[in-house]
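User: Fold this, then the next.

Assistant: Folding the first:
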Amino acid sequence: MNNIKLETRDYCLNYGKFRALDHITIAIPEKQVTALIGPSGCGKSTFLRTFNRMNDLIPGVRVEGSAKMDGQDIFAMDVVQLRQQVGMVFQKPNPFPKSIFDNVAYGPRVNGMKDPRMIKELVEKSLRGAALWDEVKDDLNKSGLALSGGQQQRLCIARCMAVQPTVILMDEPAASLDPIATLRIEELIRRLVEDFTIVIVTHNLQQAGRISDYTAFFYTDESRSGHLVEFDLTDIIFTRPKDKRTEDYISGRFG
């Protein structure tokens, strides 16, 4: 396994009295794609949001155990600095009501970059990295909202890349896209992993099998708490899982 980038030990998350995640221990390797799979309501997205502390925004949330990035306690880090290092791409594309250029330049400007030349170079680099540059280079003043759904999602990925994170979290990034746009996003993810650690929530098992290096299977028990059942190389999870619940889910017997 590569160097460990993200790690939790005995990590629990509670909404008031309800335990949404129960004692999750996992070590996510650097510069690999890790897919989080499992039935609806098993805590995949809640777990994903641990790593940029988006759960902090929900009233009554309480955590136990540890969550670390590069060996540092995530909950002891400055949240603004954490989110500069950990970007997020959501299920539904959410470009700002600004030009394509200003969407990508927004983060660097907020972080204090003022040199127009540097901003222009970073915008181009990010759009190239998101495989969008050739489609929009002659129309950077066009509204990001005028792009197709697949282009909007790649614009959001470029916007995420522009603040130069080391981790990109993706919460079902292709769920609202057509098959062709989905394929473009999947191809992009496989290129991005050369430079970023990527953690993706997906309900699409074929997608997890195509794009991920590692897979974590989450499941809920009778109390509706989310548990990590199994974590391993994707090939092993899909062909020789150790737990019967994983095998049943992968084979479509439930979920």
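Now the next one, as you asked:
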Amino acid sequence: MAGHVLILGGARSGKTGFAEKLAMRAGDRPLYLATAQALDDEMRERVRLHQQQRHKRFATLEEPLALPAALERAAAMHDVILVDCLTLWITNLLGAGRNVAQAVDELAAALARIEHSRVILVSNEVGLGIVPDNALARMFRDLAGAAHQRLADICGEVHFVVAGLPLTLKGERLTESTPATEARSSTGTT
């Protein structure tokens, strides 16, 4: 399981672009596993833009809730799977009344069983701001933080992306010729 990667960063930090470049280098049959649910016009537009910007080599699978099972099925056909994003998945679980801690445990167990595919998990770091003013937002922040810690422990690499620049927290330190540099130079955005 040392090949799995967790990429954290704030909103619009460049984490997805960085993850896409890592995925393109990691395999020949990449899958983009999207957890978003396009429930309003703004989200539909964000999904459309993500799809438009994504490299055409990616197959796409949308799965808002059953992420562990979807990963295990996808690993049979794809050598690299980019999951974008865990914080939306946690939001979906909360909205469906699911036990988030149990779902994260199931995700960790699924990752342990996936040996021949590299999984790249993207998530928003939400614990760097002020303490949220309501109980639901505080619970979400705490659940996301616990999920990040659990997954960082089992992933072979962990990167934090700020202003399009990856900081390696765990694993091999990236150099200037890394996917983040390529992402900024080839697309202009990440």
